[in-house]
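Morning run. Coffee first, then this:
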Amino acid sequence: MNDSDRLVHIALALDEVSQRSVAKRLESAGFALRFLSTAGELAAVLPECRFLLVGRPPRLDWTPAVQLRLLQIAGTGVDPLFPATGLAERIWIANCRGFQADAVRDHALALLLALARDLPGYLRSQSRSAWSPFPSPSLRGKKMVVVGFGDIGTRVAEAARSFGLRVHAVRRRREIPTGVERVASLAELEDVLGGADFAVICLPCTRLTRGAVGGTALAALPPRAVLVDVSRGGVVDHAAVERALREGRLAGAALDVFEDEPLASGSTLWSCPGLVVTPHVGGFTPDYIERVLDVFVDNLALVQRGLPPSTLVSREHEY
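And here it is:
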């Protein structure tokens, strides 16, 4: 490799220890690094970038990126990037989908079980030193709708079936996966949500899915239903979720993703009854950065051989 093919630009929010870890890994693979701290720094070096690893995809004019070959995103969601103004078609866009799927599944099921068994209620009783037993229904035989049936949705469905839940899926393709009772399109969302006990939202956020789970869709759920959102901020109308909870039209909800993150300290979501808020940690594991680097190094090797990255993002579908 010549010097220009060795230089990698890194625009990640990393502490000093993590920076050293990233540098050690990439330098051992034969690359030179330059860390970028601000959007201004990134914009300034775009003309010289060939390989770029970013955290939250920046929305900017990519026209100056005349040498860029690989834009690698250190996560699954790429919605902040689009419409990707000025980003030439020859530039590969890649994400890190796949390796987070098991962790997000675990988080989604943890939230669902906590609400199904009303763990928040027991924690409130514990805070009062109150012994307050109450019955909780079994999951077996209940209907779960998994909205978005990619890597995460598939794993959520597999785990749900082990609890005896009846799984319905909302997905773009119409083939019915093993163990799924029904597959519906996004246009049929309200119909498939009718009679559901649980809805787990795993959709990417695209121009077609933004706001897909809004007030009308939520109204299709029965008052006993629980909703878990591990998708992307912007897919679910959280204001509509809050209204449904406060008006008793939804039994419970858990939100791990938000349109604006971090969630503002003054947001009424923090105090909404029946709502569990977690700070976008579904896929955040102790080895997260190491797993990102595994994907990035593999994709760098592919791109340098003239091949597409293994986690190529579809510009048409925006995921």
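The domain at 101-277 is CATH 3.40.50.720 (Rossmann fold). Good start to the day.
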